[in-house]
Amino acid sequence: MAHLTMARKLEVTATWLDDDGRGVGDAGGRQVHVADLLPGERAEVVIEHQSPHRPQSWAQISARTSPLARDRVPPGCPAAGACGGCTWQHLAYPAQLAAKRARLVRLLGDAVPSVGPVTPSPSPWGYRNKGKYVVGAGRDGLVLGAHAPRSHRVVETLGCKVVAPVIDDVARLVRRAADRAGLVAYDERGRAGELRYVVIRADATGGALVVLVVTSACRADALDAAAEAIAGHRAVRGVVAMTNDRADGAIVTADTRVLRGAGALVEDLGGATVEVGAVEFLQVHRDQARALYARVVALALDGLPAGARVADVYAGLGGIALALARAGAHVTAIEAEPAAVAALGRAAAAAGLAERITAVAGDAASLAAAASGASLAAIVVDPPRKGLSAAALAAVVAAAPRRVVYVACGPEALARDLRALAAAGYVAGPAEAFDLMPGTPEVETVVALTRPAG
């Protein structure tokens, strides 16, 4: 709007939070996103950027004109706001849950009949079983942290309250060990250096696996010295090196080697033990994932006979597939990553479930093959944030299962795919939400769809 272009100051009352933790309010039909403004708070703001394509602007507070919201709390992490993660930490946890539900209501619209309350995390702190750190160069040595938003500057995140305490403890040792070994932080702009990232996993027993992501130019003697020191920590079960010379910002590659100890941790998924190494995906919130999987199994198998044939698409390490098999289903688990498929196969054999689980490395074509010959009673899909591919959606519809259970981390894609399934004759039930990532706008959503008989 023209008057916003000329007058850069205005008053805004926030009514909801965006994914970056900015309060969003309306100004003459234009959405204004304001840093550090919670719903219910009002402020005079200065417009910093206006979208040339949509009626949206971004602003900073110049003066607060209302009391602080009752739901405002001090963030728990020392780097909150600076690191770009956990953008809702300044909002009280009950209000976070309400805001997540409101987000789902807004994004899902009429794609579902209702949205239930969000199942809360047992604690908003210490829930993450994996910590990822960007390595940078500081005045006093290496820095382990995260890139500041829209920047290449690394903000230290040691002291983070969101990761399991053992992860923060081990990360501090990793920094000291890498410093003493003389490892050089990687410079993204100059594309030079040795140590790029550090990834630390923690298991349920307090053990840790350390992954040092290095360039091919990393000196073997310095890397070995760092690994030796890290392996001396009482919690460390293994140290792994991962070579990464990519220019696209991806952290994980397949080029890994064990430097000390074990190359994987052992986790309990669906009542079976699964090896989790450097590259496999695992939900970061162990307790909430367990509750989520139990609900998915209940929805998928409700009313189905024992031994029903079920497909689990985007199966990962098999948390859902193993739980389905333990509940009596015969499961075809389809996953694109061969290492995860192999780990799932080993887990099924060790748990005595090998006859109930067929693990397949594949995609939508594999689902079509699984559905041929004998009908699938149910299909569970747990796609990445972008949702189902066109081929996967077509394969689900062609398989014509009685029930589809959709597990989603991206509500926008979920809404799109639910409407496509509705057009194919499926009827969606209520959306059920689980908070696997407190302090963030992220929410895991489960929707069961049924195809009416006849």
The overall number of domains is 3
The dominant shape is globular
Radius of gyration (Å): 24 Å
Uncertain residue segments: 1-6
* CATH fold name of the largest domain: Rossmann fold
Helix content: 25-40%
SS-based class: alpha/beta
CATH homologous superfamily designation of the largest domain: Vaccinia Virus protein VP39
Count the DSSP helices: 10
- Please provide the count of β strands: 23
At the first level of CATH, the class of the largest domain is Alpha Beta
Mean pLDDT: 93
Strand content: 25-35%
Q: How are the strands of the biggest sheet laid out side by side?
A: 7-22-23-21-20-17-18-19
Distance between the termini: 53 Å
CATH architecture of the largest domain: 3-Layer(aba) Sandwich
Q: Can you offer a commentary on this structure?
A:
The chain has 454 residues and is an alpha/beta fold. It folds into 3 domains: 2-64, Beta Barrel (OB fold (Dihydrolipoamide Acetyltransferase, E2P)); 106-120 and 285-450, Rossmann fold (3-Layer(aba) Sandwich); 130-269, OB fold (Dihydrolipoamide Acetyltransferase, E2P). 26% of the residues lie in helices and 31% in strands. It has helices at 2-6, 93-108, 165-181, 220-231, 286-301, 319-326, 338-350, 364-371, 390-399, 411-423, and strands at 9-13, 16-17, 23-27, 30-34, 42-50, 56-64, 115-119, 130-138, 141-147, 154-156, 195-202, 208-214, 236-243, 256-261, 265-269, 272-276, 309-313, 330-335, 357-361, 378-381, 403-408, 427-434, 444-450. The strands form 4 sheets. An 8-stranded mixed β-sheet has the order 7-22-23-21-20-17-18-19, with helices on both faces. A 7-stranded mixed β-sheet has the order 10-9-8-11-12-13-14. Strands 1-5-6-4-3-2 form a 6-stranded mixed β-sheet, with no helix packed on it. A hairpin with a 5-residue loop joins strand 11 (195-202) and strand 12 (208-214). It is globular, with a radius of gyration of 24 Å. The chain starts with a helix and ends with a strand. 46% of the residues are buried. Mean pLDDT is 93; it is low at 1-6.
